[in-house]
Amino acid sequence: MSRREPADSAQLELDPRLQAILDQPFPRFSEAEMRRRREALVALMRQHEIDQLLVCGEQRAGTGISWLTGWVTTNEQIIVFDARERPRMYVEWVNHVPLARQLAWECDVEWGEHRGVDKAIAELRRRGAKRVGVMGVFNFGKYRKLAAAFADIVDLNPAYSRLRLTKSEEEIDWLRIGAAFSDASISALHRELRPGLNERELGDIAERAYVPFGGTTFIHYFGVTQMASPDCFIPRQHPMNRVVRAGDCVFTEITGVFWDYGGQVLRTFAVGAEPTPLYRDLFDTAEAAYDAVTSVMRPGCTMEEIVEAASVIEARGFTICDDLVHGFGGGYFQPILGTRSRPAGPLPDIVLAENMTVVIQPNVIDRAHTAGVQVGELVRVTADGCESLHRAPRGFFRVD
What we know:
Layout: H1 16-22, H2 31-47, E1 52-58, H3 63-69, E2 76-81, E3 88-92, H4 97-103, E4 108-111, H5 116-126, E5 131-136, H6 140-149, E6 152-155, H7 157-164, H8 169-192, H9 199-208, E7 216-226, E8 248-258, E9 261-262, E10 265-271, H10 277-296, H11 303-309, H12 312-315, E11 319-320, E12 325-328, E13 332-337, E14 357-360, E15 364-365, E16 376-381, E17 386-388, E18 396-399
Parallel strand pairs: 1-5, 3-4, 5-6, 10-18
Antiparallel strand pairs: 1-2, 2-3, 7-8, 8-9, 8-10, 10-16, 11-15, 12-13, 12-14, 14-16, 16-17
Helix pairs in contact: 1-8, 8-9, 10-11
């Protein structure tokens, strides 16, 4: 099958329950799930003694918007939220308003008229705001206007991030769909990767595996280098116009997204040749680190235990560049961990809990920073361990 032909639905390997979610005209969470979120947010506001909250998003960033309403951030959205009245959302641009009114759950939607922050401030005053919380992306100019209107402002982003660490069962179902989109890209690369393609075409292959099913792109990063004389140890965030050649290593990090819920899968390919001894050692070490980390993950697991489990990387003479572990699902959250040789700052004060979702991604590299591999994927912490949300096979794949 050419990569220009849409894949068939069997490639997504979705359970009927998940396929039913995908088949909705617009996928929606249940009313019980949406009520749960709003009740959790009200409890957080009470904990911080906040009477009014602004939930903000700009330029497609700000996951609190979709988590609270089901409307994914586009250009700019500001929601005024409290425990008593219906939320009110100000939306730019004007042509986005009709669909936002259709999708936003139990929320009044207005056009922001390019002065959404002024409208939000007026609404806060009407509601008698005293102590105002801010959650999400809120630029400095808008913040200055808010600060001029209200003396008591609280940054609720750290608390929101903590709240999002643990996922509901419905959220995990949506993450499974995002994982299936990401897996479809790996399957397409396994099938179509060959000498003569350039890195831009690799992105085309990745996206065409899930776009026919309503998936969108969060990332597809590729590293391409000759295994005999490597010069790339981490996938690049922007593609080069480099042509894949026999003897190359191609390693990738892919997140296809189902609304705001994506999987994340990392794999490594050898093109037209067997892995060199260095690349085999790098890959075997990465796999050993992945297995060691998953073996300790369970409710109550500490960050120190995870870093210790990954010490196989240093024991074999290697290190990492990318983060070893990060929270994922509705954002890039804590815990964000490195290793002993490449820490990611102070260890966060977190222990794992059931239904936390994290990406384990050992990007094992040589000490000279010339060669590297990527392995790993998104997992869910279960009652007694952890479970991968992906079905893409693991391995150092040879493609010809």
